Prior knowledge:
There is one protein chain. The protein contains 17 helices and 20 strands. It has helices spanning 2-5, 16-27, 73-81, 109-130, 133-138, 141-147, 152-167, 170-173, 178-186, 213-223, 265-271, 277-284, 299-306, 334-337, 376-386, 407-421, 431-445; strands spanning 7-12, 31-37, 48-53, 57-62, 67-68, 87-90, 93-95, 102-103, 206-209, 228-230, 234-239, 244-248, 254-256, 258-261, 288-296, 316-321, 324-333, 349-352, 363-372, 395-397. Strands 8-7-16-17-18-15-19 form a seven-stranded mixed beta sheet. It has a five-stranded parallel beta sheet with strand order 10-2-1-14-20. α2 (16-27) packs parallel to α16 and α4 (109-130) crosses α9. The longest helix is centred in the first third of the chain and has 22 residues, at 109-130. The relative contact order is 0.20. It binds flavin-adenine dinucleotide. Flavin-adenine dinucleotide (FAD) binds at residues 12-18, 36-39, 44-46, 64-68, 168, 233-234, 262-263, 267, 271, 293, 369, 371, 399-400, 405-407, 410.
Amino acid sequence: MRELAKKRVCVVGAGAAGLAAAWSLSRSGRFEVSVQEEAELVGGVASTVSIALPTAGITRMNDQVRCGAPTFRNTELLFEAFGSSFTSMPLRVSIGTGEARWNNTQATPFILRMRPEIRRFRRLLELIRRAPARLGVALPIESVLRVGRFSEDFRHRTLYPLMSLFFASGVDSMRVPATVVAALFLDEDSRLFDFDAGTLLPPFATVVVFPDLAEVYARVAAALGGCVHTGASVTSVARSARGVSVKRHGSAPEAFDAVIFACSAERALGALADPSPIERLVLGSVEYQEAVLVTHVDADYIRRHHGVAPDSDVQYYTRNDPSDPARIEVSMHLGRFQPWLRGEGPDVFQTIEPIGAISADKILLTRRARHPRNSTRHFLRMLPWLRFIQGRRRTCFAGGYTLMNTHEHAVVSGLAAAERLGAPYPFADDPAARAQFELYRRAVHG
Length: 446
Ligand SMILES: Cc1cc2nc3c(=O)[nH]c(=O)nc-3n(C[C@H](O)[C@H](O)[C@H](O)COP(=O)(O)OP(=O)(O)OC[C@H]3O[C@@H](n4cnc5c(N)ncnc54)[C@H](O)[C@@H]3O)c2cc1C
């Protein structure tokens, strides 16, 4: 009898958000869950690839999502529940080139010159935090900094390159709402690192490095039993007072009581048979952009363009396009935060949106990644209205895009969607995790 009383929930997408939602629903014992994932593997952009390294054989590496901040407590607890853990390490960056080079461990001449503006920036962030939230959301940081007469060197060669480490796109950093920038630097619960009045990014900043993500998410999927279907693309979701009808490519429609869309907003909107005007507005307001990610072993490229020897302890390198300072290239030394990549083989790098030519014979993998923009439009036209489509018409929306597109937000979004349908939040006993969850729930579910 109890089995019959279980609510049937379809989760569309088996990335971090979808798997967190499905795990939370199924552990509550009150739901019968079915996860539909169109790819052959679970994890979504939290992917791990096997790559043949010259002289070192096959190596596995997280080639998209790879690290986070110490505030990612829900992610940490989810990983621990499946026998994995973070590795915490000091964050080392090398920003800019030539005379505009700076890092977070030394007082370079450039950063010494930027110090008065760094201090002024801190005061500005405090002001932004006190301003009405809507104003701070409506104004991109670039407009605020221009009005405040911050120099091009501060904007394009100091602040935006640092932000681009987290948003993985240089051009986009300048469009991030001022309020969001203030939160990233100053908010107790969501800041990525402490504010340093000397070097902006403190010398003791830490980054948490994720374990083999394919392994973790395969374990989550295995724990869910046979309810995770890969190679299953959802093409249409029709909702009525009686229930939800989910159609997969090549299969007959299946009936459910509720659906959680844990795929991108554009895919959710595309699959909805009858989106309401507000669903169209909210989901249609998420802007996506593409970035090219090149994984390579071209150490000369890094040396040539950054003047930093790859054997230093730097993990991140950025540089501005000489002809357009707004365009920022980000490179990562993958071995620096994937300890298992260190060893016999060559140094492995990933360059996002390369400005120069990486030697073709040193390229291991090229990917185009599509990700949501953290623009003012996103925060003005999507976020304030998102709560009005959550839990309505038997539907919830989860995914990193629902807040700031971090792995933590993806995991929390899944747990919040599951809670919205009646599954208890699993990490209620952990104050730090709970704080992240409540912050998200207030912003996204109202
Ligand atoms: C290149 C890249 C690097 C990133 N790096 C980091 C990082 O280092 N740290 C960090 O915190 N965040 C990072 N992020 C942010 C990232 O988006 C989140 O970390 C998080 O993993 C996203 O999870 P998700 O479940 O919301 O979405 P996804 O991982 O995109 O999962 C959505 C899933 O839905 C599936 N799907 C889509 N449509 C359908 C359909 N119609 N039917 C069935 N299945 C469907 C997709 O195949 C996919 O598996 C990165 C993002 C990108 C793009």
